[in-house]
Amino acid sequence: MLVTKLKETSSFSAGANAVNGMVVCTQPRRISAITLARRVNEELGCPDEPGGQHSLVGYQVRLDRAVSSSTRLLYCTAGVLLRKLQVEPEQHTVTHIVLDEVHERSVQSDFLLLLLRLLRRRRPDLHLLLMSATADCTKFSSYLGHCPVVSVPGRTHPVQSFYLEDVVEACGYTLNSGSSYGVEAAIEEADSLEKIEATQSECQVVPETSEGLDKSQYSARTLNTLNSMNQEKVNPQLIVKLLQHIE
């Protein structure tokens, strides 16, 4: 949303109206780059899909590219931007670079931050923005020459935690005898003594989820189900029960 608001600022408008001026926003994952490009493209009211001739938004990830001569806001991964810096180190056509989710550090993101720090010394006109909800802003600010920090207040919503035993109790789920999602079935699937021993140790219900429970809050059915359930295996039957209970 912050990138969307940049369109309303004079600095963004100046970059967009410049010859081939572009704002680049990096995302830690390719699916994030593509999804955000489509979302922002829709919010800007562009008639075309990202990368179209009548769209200001585009994206570029490995093996997939949607960019045109009209693109002024490009979403990409850190690897793509590193490649662009390798081909054109000065990036004269780029006016703003936004590093989103900067707290999700990797070798590529750290190396990219180093290159952009050096690029800023050669191109003081380049605007560099780092965005994160959990990063240590003081460290990043110090690394980039004590640049200013802008805090945007967010909204929090109350969250109530429900655990496996709560779900089993609420849904009335019972694990049938001989079920493929039980501990016995997991042991039978093992084809060697070593695998049997490993399966037994992995599938045993830990005391915190069975013996450690307050038995007054849970029925005998729930306790028996927890003791016989293979908690290392995803149980779609329980998921269906939960969805039916929520509806």
Please describe the topology of this protein:
Elements: H1 2-6, H2 10-17, E1 22-27, H3 30-43, E2 57-61, E3 64-66, E4 73-77, H4 78-87, E5 94-99, H5 107-122, E6 127-130, H6 137-143, H7 164-171, H8 183-188, H9 193-203, H10 220-228, H11 236-246
What would you say this structure looks like, in words?
The protein is α/β, with parallel strands linked by helices and 247 residues long. It contains eleven helices and six strands. The chain has a six-stranded mixed sheet. Helix 5 (107-122) links the parallel strand 5 and strand 6 (127-130). Helix 4 (78-87) packs across helix 5 (107-122), helix 7 packs across helix 10 (220-228) and helix 7 (164-171) packs across helix 11. The protein is elongated, with a radius of gyration of 26 Å. It starts with a helix and ends with a helix.
Summary?
The protein has 247 residues and is α/β, with parallel strands linked by helices.
Keywords:
11 helices; 247 residues; disordered N terminus; alpha/beta; elongated; 6 strands; 6-stranded mixed β-sheet; helicase activity
User: What value does the average pLDDT take?
Assistant: 82
Low-confidence stretches: 1-19, 205-209
Give the overall shape, derived from the CA principal axes: elongated
Number of strands: 6
Radius of gyration: 26 Å
Report, as a whole number of angstroms, the end-to-end distance.
32 Å
What percentage of residues falls in helices of 4 or more residues? 40-55%
Largest sheet: 6 strands, mixed
